[in-house]
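EI: anyone free to look at a 100-residue chain?
SC: sure, send it
EI:
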Amino acid sequence: MNILISPQAAAWFKRELSLGDGAHIRLFPRYSSGGGLHPGFSLGIATEQPGRPAAAFEQDSLIFYMEEQDLWYLEGYNLAIVYSEAEDDIEYRYEPVPVT
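SC: here you go
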């Protein structure tokens, strides 16, 4: 499992959440009527310090991470967070991890 954030998506986070360099962004599964990888769940975000981070990626001086207990959500997948200029929003792209 890898987490990749495009530079444009990192800039969106900084702008929309008023974040400075060194800020931490937690990615976590949350209950939702929408959907992501799993019915009834979607990916949430929070600006908080890590407790037990198990996966992390830095982009443009922002640290994106997932806690140990949340890794089940991406099991078997890589996550790419990209910026959609047309929507002026971020987009989550889930890509299956190739089986070797």
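EI: The beta strands are 3-5, 24-35, 39-46, 53-59, 62-67, 77-84, 89-96.
SC: 👍
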